[in-house]
Amino acid sequence: MPTVHHTLNEDLSGSSSKLFASLNSSAQGLDPENAGTELALKGGTDESEASHSFHETKYRPQRQTENGSMPKTLLKQLAQDDAEIENLERKLGIRKGRRSLPRAFKDDGLDELLGGVVDGDSTSEDDQGKRKAAYDNWLSSKRRKHNALPESSTERDLGNMLIDSDCESSQHGSSNHPEMRLDNFEPKRRLCNAPDGVEREYDDDLTKKSDGSFEGFDDTSEVLTILQSPPRPRENPYVAPTGGINLAKYIPPSKRHQEEGKKDTELQKRLQGVVNRLTDACLISLTQSVEGIYQSHARGKVTEILTDAILAQMRKSETLPDQFFVLIGGFSAAIYKITGSSFGSHLVRRVVREFSEQYNYALTYTGNHIRKEPSNLLTFLTQLYVFEVVGCTIVFDYMERLLDNLSELNVELLLRVCRMAGRLLRRDDPQALQHVSNVLNVAVSRIGYSNISVRTKFMVETIQDLKNSKAKAKGTESIIVSEHVLRMKKRLGELKTQSRRLDGLTPMGIRLKDIEDVDRHGKWWLVGASVPEYRDAAERASLVSGQAKTTLNEAPDDEDMDFVLPDFPNKAKAQGLNTPSQIAIFTAIMSALDSEHGYRQFANLRLKRDEQLEITRVLVQCVGSELHYNEYYALVGRQACTNGRVRFAFQNRLWGMFRGLGESLFGGEEDDEETMEGERMKNDRRLRHVAQFYASLVADGSLSITILKPVELPKLNAWSSIFAVRPSSWQQQSLPKIASSLMPARWSREFASVSEEKDLVIIGGGVAGYVAAIKAGQEGMKVACIEKRGTLGGTCLNVGCIPSKSLLNNSHLYHQILHDTKNRGIEVGEVKLNLPNFMKAKDSAVNGLTKGVEFLLKKNGVDYIKGAASFVNENDIKVSLNEGGETTVRGKNILIATGSEATPFPGLKIDEKRVITSTGAIALEKIPETMIVIGGGIIGLEMASVWSRLGTKVTVVEFLGQIGGPGMDAEIAKATHKLLKKQGMDFKLNTKVVSGDNSGDKVSLNVDAAKGGKSETLDADVVLVAIGRRPYTQGLGLENIDMELDERGRVIIDSEYRTKIPHIRCVGDVTFGPMLAHKAEEEAVAVVEYIKKGYGHVNYGCIPSVMYTYPEVAWVGQNEQDLKNQKIPYRVGTFPFSANSRAKTNLDTDGLVKMLADPETDRLLGVHIIGPNAGEMIAEGTLALEYGASTEDIARTCHAHPTLAEAFKEAAMATSSKAIHF
């Protein structure tokens, strides 16, 4: 076997050597055999050494074709040879890199036969080191020569140097050197035997002449093909090899700014596109897009470009709409919430700088009109404040500066601030607003009130009204803007679900002076920046030095300043209130305008739970320190007692005072603090004031009379007796008697307990009310629900949704039996309608459901009170019981859920007989011959469908150009109109009702074309008024608590359903949003979660609407006309029920499914269905919208067959690609 191995290596080495020697000899006229021998022995070794060297390198030609790949035949041949050689090596036990033969070879005497192979590798290490050193010296000299050559010379003589390399390298080592390996050997265009110093290239023709010398060499035919192929580009051996890797083009630093400029341009286009596409609906998705851009680009560059894009919208000479500022301000706040103060700080600084430039230019502008750029920028800054990017300080700073000069420009800017954020400024810092008002008075007095313009007088009145919180000031803010702000804050609330949202991010407390002095003090508001100890040190030093120079005659002015601006911290310390929380509470209470304001300021301190309890110490200390008893502290304490922990703290402090006065309660002794408290209480005036303070809290129910239970009244000492018992001037009545005499007489009924304060009192037992009550009961809260109707469920369950659906379903069955059974092969005899029993079925369903709801309230521990509720104050609700008498319920939290009522038509008196609302439409005693429905919305069309099926001739009068209301898609509305008209209903669109008269036998209506035209008179037996609904707030006593309502009578709330009084909330039809039962139900759950857990969720973009006519119509999301108006790109896909197998089998093929999707992301934007069971099918679309699904997601979801829901899938397929069955 060793002999075979040796022979194989010799054959391979010899054939390869002869192959390339033949090539050279053909070019030079040499004998191939001698040339091959010369090549093999060039390094001064014998043939066996050359053979072994060849074996070690494993000859693999790397010659490639033009496209950089080797022929498959050659690769296969080489792989086969390598496999055979490795197989023989494995059998012989020879491992790669081994420097000696195995011991078994020596034992068998085979080492002498393979001695040449071993000798080839037995070269001494000294010789190898010398050869490597000589080779390194030679290679270094060649590289030095290469670097010394000019660039053009290097390129021109590259081939010559390659020849020189191959010729000279053969004299310095064996074929193991990289330059001598056969895979780098390229005989074409080389002359190795040229004389020294002669360097020349072959002519291409010489190579062609040598082709004949390869005839008959079967094993090398593929090699010949490679050698004849066009040459590949050469690499310079004196520089690092590239290894065949395509490297990126090198760009000098001086030219790299061009590439960066291109990238910046692309980034600018992307961010500008985001700003251009900005809408309410796309806010969250565009914010996520910007977040992705931040992650893939330099944050500073993105911030700079995005800020430029935003401010570019403000540099316009015309006044921009208020809604635009709300939108762009909300977007900026969204970016601030996910990126942090780095973006917010940069944006605010740029706004301040831009405003300064535009304002200075506007002052020098000589045109006829006031430039609007400063107004736009300042309005944008106020929106950054509204959406909590900055605090109110910077806005007040601007207001104070603008009051220095009451020019027309400054007056306009001040009015813009008051309009966009006036009430919010007063709520956040009434003291600052008071200061602004004082500065305004000084400025006006300086000019003279009679000398200022009418517009300036209006501005003065506006600020004064804001300061005094007058009702007139409520009109300073646009209702449309308020609603938009509310919607935008709800959108921003959805960012809570984003994983990269920065929790705990508060408004930046930057002052205007901080931004202007950023070069001196730095950006202290950024995360990680150092805060200067006193940023106004220079001003303070100047002030102190000025005070030192004041004369004694000026001292009274300083005393007056102490009266105008008291030093509350020092006054608090003088009262023994030393902790930061006590000082803060003292300042909040003492600086308030009234008790409500005081408690609101205390609540806004956002103190920790334990720190909140310090209000008991502050109030007791303050009431005892007054010269005369002040009821103000008791009013504040009454509101504070809505917190159970504070209520217990008052009780504990009372017991501590008794122990400090020497009483032994619960067998314990007083501690040091109680001892000090007792010493302070041993003052007759303080003792009387504190006792009256506690008596007041007990009298109004804030504290229970049981707080005196541990006190043994007959055994009190002298000081305790003064506290618990009135002196002779008080007619010797004890504290319990004082409290009981102050308590109003109250009636109680059933579950309601007058002595217990409820965690939640709900006014209204409709869908929102009873759902909130059940949810709160499940959360372990003490709940009372007040409903005056006598049955739970409200309008929806009693006279709305539920009874109307019973009539709709049964009337459809009646109509189908009359007109559709013959087509189905069912013959029915005479069919009669029994209207009383028809109505009885409806009443039966309603009674069962109302009793079920009442059972659920009892099951969850809810106190159900039947009566009419009205506010006595912010915590007490007076209830006029249905059974007679009154009761009062007190709650820590109060929820208004009184719902809505039908809007009457002017000039027509509703009698529910001939002129009816939806309530009368479900209770008619006979089927009218004719009916006119005023209003083609959902309610009007549903009731019209019922009576039209029962035989009434119905005419619908609608002011708009389509039925179904503005929320219904125009294409769906058109299809619905066609189908209902086919069922026998008449429509008069674009028609308005001018007047009505019900004095005759029939009700007459005078109608005109909405756009002008001929008048006509319509007569009918019954007229149904269905022009909408309005919030129901009558008799609630909202004026007693100064509740804020908009011009439509809706209660104004914030994003957490809070009214202006934080513990009073409002949900359902009585506030904003669509008047839908399921929307109210979602809000009811969310508001309880806000009260109990601090968070809740309602996605107002995913609230479905359903019209239960036949066929049903349902939709969710945006419609096509809204997308067109907002210029939002979209893609449409539709699928008709006529192509659905289940609809075909049911012989019910009217209608279609329509989907709208984003053309770029394929995200679902809206779903609109008209057809059988549309109300059930829309749930899938609502779920898809809620979770941001694409139409492809829906299309790839398996739907059962055969079902109507397959039409939903096919519509999704038609939107994303193509439907299968249509």
Gist of the model:
The chain has about 1200 residues and is α/β, with parallel strands linked by helices. The longest helix is centred in the first third of the chain and has 27 residues, at about 1-30. One of its GO terms (biological process) is 2-oxoglutarate metabolic process.
Overview of this structure, please?
The protein has six domains: 2-228, no CATH class; 265-521, Alpha Horseshoe (Serine Threonine Protein Phosphatase 5, Tetratricopeptide repeat), CATH 1.25.40.180; 566-742, Serine Threonine Protein Phosphatase 5, Tetratricopeptide repeat, CATH 1.25.40; 758-901 and 1032-1092, 3-Layer(bba) Sandwich (FAD/NAD(P)-binding domain); 904-1027, FAD/NAD(P)-binding domain (3-Layer(bba) Sandwich); 1111-1216, 2-Layer Sandwich (Enolase-like, domain 1). 50% of the residues lie in helices and 9% in strands. It contains 50 helices and 21 strands. The protein has 1222 residues and is α/β, with parallel strands linked by helices. α17 packs parallel to α19, α31 (614-625) packs across α35 and α35 packs across α36 (718-724). The chain is globular and about 125 Å long. Strands 1-2-3-4-5 form a five-stranded mixed beta barrel. Residues 23-70, 111-133 are annotated as: Disordered. Its cofactor is FAD. Pfam families: MIF4G, Pyr_redox_2, Pyr_redox_dim.
How many DSSP-defined strands?
21
- What would the average pLDDT be, to the nearest integer? 76
Radius of gyration: 46 Å
How many angstroms separate the termini?
Answer: 76 Å
How would you sum up the major sheet?
5 strands, mixed, barrel
List the uncertain runs: 1-68, 118-124, 149-228, 547-565, 727-755
Query: Total domains, how many?
Result: 6
Q: Per DSSP, what share of the residues sits in E-state strands of 2 or more residues?
A: 5-15%
GO biological process, one term: cellular respiration
InterPro entries: ARM-type_fold, Class-I_Pyr_Nuc-Dis_Oxidored, FAD/NAD-bd_sf, FAD/NAD-binding_dom, FAD/NAD-linked_Rdtase_dimer_sf, Initiation_fac_eIF4g_MI, Lipoamide_DH, MIF4G-like_typ-3
Family: Belongs to the class-I pyridine nucleotide-disulfide oxidoreductase family.
Keywords: Disulfide bond, FAD, Flavoprotein, NAD, Oxidoreductase, Redox-active center
